[in-house]
Amino acid sequence: MTYRDIHRAAFLSRPNRFIAQVEVDGRKETVHVKNTGRCRELLVPGCTVYLEGSANPARRTKFDLVAVEKARPGLPPLLINMDAQAPNRVFGEWMAAGKGESLGLPKPALLRPETTWGNSRFDFYWELSGAADKFPLRRGFIEVKGCTLEQDGLALFPDAPTERGVKHLRELMACRGAGYEAAVCFVIQMAGMRAFSPNDRTHPAFGTALREAAAAGVKVLAVECAVTPDSLVMTGSVPVVL
Predict the structure, then answer these.
(1) Domains of the chain, with CATH numbers?
(2) Which of 57, 109, 218, 235 has the smallest count of CB within 10 Å of its CB?
């Protein structure tokens, strides 16, 4: 996926989870933050951020904050895409192109976003049908999670407690028990990671649920991305360490 009209800026402050104050082109601007998570380790005063200009003249803010450079002692800054809507978009592009096969996922005959099953709503539902009878031979659900937390080259999720995330894992286990295939894919919105792990220190219950899901047959996948200020592209899997 690509962005248009990108501007480099300096982050100043974040009054609330929806907006930030930045300095862009020599002036102070209030911008929309496309990630309502804490991101405290990313949005530090003075850091470099990247903004996408809005084409909507009626908007109250002219820009969306979509990426940030994370300073690393002794290393070049790490460019991280922090657009919370981007993981589903790039994952959908990846699956539609048949690249999910590298993760053990099929190139589906049907890929449908935002699909309800029972009391659950999943990011994607897919079917692989037989050529003759058109009935689905395989079908499953996939939940996608964006990952922006990095520590010493290790990608971690979540960056804050997420009961919603635990609920999604329990629901995927229920799908698996009902005969569907099920997977959770962590889209790592940065490059160069050596592995992915659940962030047990921040939310032990999520790590426990993830390990239980894996034991129940839910695929646990992690894919990193090539990131530029104006693009995000999934590139390949990284090891999952549970």
Answers:
(1) 6-80 (2.40.50.580), 86-237 (3.40.1350.60)
(2) 57
